[in-house]
C-alpha cells in the first residue's frame, strides 16, 4: 500500500510520484510535497517586503490623492491600528483628518 497523499484538488487516492512531484491521474493536478505543508492563509506585505498584521502602524511612502476629492494624504502620514482584508485595497483603516478608507499595502511601510 502506498503512503502517498490524496490529491488536494479532487481527493483521489490514486496519486503517484514522479521525481519530486505528486501527480493525480484523474484530474491531472501536480504538486510538490513542500506545497502540502504551506497554509492557505494569505500573507500581506508592505512596500519593503515586511509582513503586515492586524493592529500594525504603517506610514505612507507616497502622496495619495483621494478619489473624487481634491484632498491629498501626504507622504509619511502614520496610520495606526490597521485591519487587513481581502481585495484590491487590502488595508482598512482610519486616517486622521480624513476618516475611514482603504489603502493598498504596496503604498505603505511598517513602522
TrEMBL record:
Transmembrane segment boundaries: none
Domain spans labelled Protein YjdM N-terminal: 4-32
Domain Protein YjdM C-terminal: 45-110
Similarity field: Belongs to the YjdM family.
Descriptive protein name: Alkylphosphonate utilization protein
Taxonomic source organism: Haliovirga abyssi
Amino acid at each position: 500500500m502506498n503512503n502517498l497523499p490524496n490529491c488536494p484538488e479532487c481527493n483521489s487516492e490514486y496519486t503517484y510520484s514522479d521525481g519530486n512531484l505528486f501527480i493525480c491521474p484523474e484530474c491531472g493536478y501536480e504538486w510538490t510535497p513542500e506545497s502540502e505543508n504551506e497554509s492557505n492563509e494569505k500573507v500581506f506585505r508592505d512596500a519593503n517586503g515586511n509582513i503586515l498584521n492586524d493592529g500594525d502602524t504603517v506610514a505612507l511612502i507616497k502622496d495619495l490623492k483621494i478619489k473624487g476629492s481634491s484632498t491629498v494624504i501626504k507622504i509619511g502620514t502614520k496610520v495606526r491600528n490597521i485591519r487587513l482584508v481581502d481585495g484590491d485595497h487590502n488595508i482598512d483603516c482610519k486616517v486622521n483628518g480624513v476618516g475611514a478608507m482603504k489603502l493598498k499595502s504596496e503604498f505603505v511601510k511598517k513602522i
